[in-house]
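Researcher: Structure prediction, please.
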Amino acid sequence: MSGRVISIWFFIGLSLLVNGILICGAGIWEVFNTPANPVVLFNLHASVWWGAILLICGLAYCVKFAPGRA
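Model: Predicted structure follows.
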């Protein structure tokens, strides 16, 4: 056992980052390929905004709690 500890917040950051990439990517896809029956507030593009927020938060957590940082 090496004694190195990786913070759980790093893995939470990875999860937020991956989910943000997927949600934002799906939202961008919907912007260019409008669904046949869009939801009422489709013009706000909530998936793009929330995906970007998750991506930024996940990136911040990954940088702040990176395993190599002391």
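Model: The CA atoms of residues 22 and 51 lie 7 Å apart.
Researcher: Thanks, that helps.
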